[in-house]
Amino acid sequence: MPMAIGLTWGKCWGAHRVMVEEKKRVFVGLISISLLILAVLAGTSWYLVQKGSKVAWWILLILLSVVMGFLIYAGLGILGLLVSLITGRTPPVLSRAQDTVAFALLPLALRVGALLGVEKDRIRASFIEVNNQLFRQKDKRVRPHELLILAPICLQNADCPRKVTNDIGQCRKCGRCSVGGLLELADKYGVNLAVATGGTKARQLIRDLNPQVVIAIACERDLVSGLQDARQITVGGITNQRPHGPCFNTQVDLEKVEEALKASLLDTAD
Hints:
270 residues, 4 strands, alpha/beta, four-stranded parallel sheet
């Protein structure tokens, strides 16, 4: 029986890893296509330079030089992402480029994805997985008071009369929603926990608490928006579960939250 359980767990873990890797490939693939489009545009510009006047030639030459410089930098960034995806590690020389390129090309990836019929949330989920791989590779360890778990208000049961956004201590851990489980994790590891009503409140909480690492929970759209707003901070994203639809009685995988905590804290002893 233990062997059967072990085999079943191994198959589930293997399936999960495959799904995560596939998610990452969507975003990396789209930004690669985006880079190819930019390269075609650059080639077209060079052709037009050959047909224009001297003034137009110099203007287009300057623009083309800028574009070519960006293409080279973006190519290095995508190379870093591909190496990271394949090996789980990134050469230090490519680390900054891959981080910059991932965020810079996200809007373009969303547009290209729309043209190809790829759902935006699928692209965002892929971007989040790529971000989380970069998050893990940074291996940034902090003290408990320097870490913040940031959760959305939609995790709280809609019928609950207690306002946990003002005071998380109002939660009675009744088990009807994920807030109680998050509070137990926060107490166990001594980290900060806050519940935000939206992006503005989330940014305010980050400014007030000034964490070094944030474990953010939200839907794909809000997570991506938050990651873009908090690029100066190390942020790991966990997508919420929506069995009742968006923004209503959502849930979160508490095991994933705890794994992120253990990977981010200097001391995770129980």
